[in-house]
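name: query_chain
kind: protein
chains: 1
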Amino acid sequence: MEETKKTGLGTAGLVLGIIGICTSIIPIINNLSFIMGILAIIFGIIALAKRDSKGKTITTIILGILAIVITLNAQKATLDALDEAMNTFSDNMNTITGGNTEDVLANGVDVSIGDFQVEKKQYGITDTKLPVKITNKTLETKSFSIQIEAVNPDGSRIKTDTIYASKLTAGQSQEFNTFNFISSEDLEAMQNATFSVLEASMY
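structure:
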């Protein structure tokens, strides 16, 4: 009867070790594989102490250790892959939403800002415009959202305007006129303003 118990522990540990190794690379399920590996080691040590088959108990312990090691490595690889995917997703979202403006301007789009122009017409009507040329610097078709700001000499912002350049092919340029509707009270400030890119998105 005692011999049967010893053989049962060794066999149970061996089975747990085998199952633990077989499932150790499967995400989520390998949490159980880790537990099975620990149980396999415990059963193997107990069986060895009770003088069960030495070859089987050592094999059981080795399988238990391997199940734990493979599980930990698989989980680390999964976590690393998730981290990389999240970082990539976050970077892409920043590119789309304007969070990577410097990178977009450096590698994605060239924004050439002209001079602010004022043309006075009849009946006190004043036309204004700021010419802006957008050029796709990438090798793929991209769309861009460019927000331009007008800033006073003291650094305070006067106004902003946004350009939407849709589906520019590689190297393609498109010209836009911004700040077309300026009130008379802002006109003088706009004529003395400095213009720059506030935010750039690429998608």
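note: Residues 2-97 form one domain.
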